[in-house]
Amino acid sequence: MIKKSLGNCFNIIGTYPPNPRCGERPGEGSYFVLRQLLRLFFCAVILGQSACRNDKTIVHPPTNAQPVSTQTPLPNPTKKELDRWDIADRETVRLQPSAFSQLPENIVVELQARQCAIPQIHGDPKPHNVISGEFQKRGQTDWAVLCSKDLISSILIFWSGSVQNPSTLEHMSDKYALQGIGNDNIGYSRYIDAVGKAFIEEHYRAYGGLNPQKLITKA
């Protein structure tokens, strides 16, 4: 009788009053007490205490279930939503090193390895920001390149055309070189050029700074 009752009434074990479908009749108190004891044992040993708080079926998620996000993914910002200065920064023309035919091949390869692009100022279609001169001493040809990578630029100086240990100057964000150019437009303005001794001395007299006699001969 106990085995039959457990087999037929497993899903409703412990219910009260007695269930006629399981062959129970009013007054079968001993069977009811036995079912209650089995229910407590079943809850405590197999499912744990949380299963004994109600008679509802507990469904456990599979172990490989993936969490479901309740947040709606944000769309990518449109061009209008970006800052206008950020837009101008990304729209700045940046040329590949191979666009400069005057550059020695070894320097082109080095710049490509560094993932450099050469930013161009607004309104000047001729490739620029690659220069050469006697920057360190007379009779030695050095090269300087404005290298932009990840929207950040620095001046690389290749002494005597060697790619070994080039000097790096003025590391700064390209965005800081933007300025208004009229009619609510924005343009890039960072520019390097080679100048002579007279230019250096003139600016030294006007603005001060390091003694030109201790500077390079052409910068």
Structural class: alpha+beta
Tally of DSSP helical segments: 5
Terminus-to-terminus distance: 106 Å
Give helix % range: 10-25%
Strand order in the largest sheet = 3-4-5-6
Give the DSSP E fraction (strand runs of 2 or more residues).
Answer: 15-25%
Biggest sheet: strands, sense, closure? 4 strands, antiparallel
Q: What is the N-to-C succession of helices and strands?
A: HHHEHEEEEEEEH
The radius of gyration over CA amounts to 40 Å
Number of separate strands: 8
Contiguous runs where pLDDT drops below 50 for at least 5 residues: 1-17, 24-28, 40-61, 65-72
List the domain count as a whole number.
2
What does this structure look like?
The protein is α+β, with helices and mostly antiparallel strands and 219 residues long. The protein has helices at 2-8, 29-47, 84-91, 105-113, 197-207, and strands spanning 94-95, 118-119, 130-133, 142-149, 152-158, 167-173, 178-182, 185-188. The chain folds into two domains: 2-52, no CATH class; 83-214, no CATH class. The strands form three sheets. Strands 3-4-5-6 form a four-stranded antiparallel β-sheet, with no helix packed on it. It has a two-stranded antiparallel sheet with strand order 1-2. It has a two-stranded antiparallel sheet with strand order 7-8. Residues 1-17, 24-28, 40-61 and 65-72 have low confidence and may be disordered. The N and C termini lie far apart (106 Å). A hairpin with a 2-residue loop joins β4 (142-149) and β5 (152-158).
Put the structure in a nutshell.
Helices cover 25% and strands 18% of the residues. The chain is α+β, with helices and mostly antiparallel strands and 219 residues long. Residues 1-17, 24-28, 40-61 and 65-72 have low confidence and may be disordered.
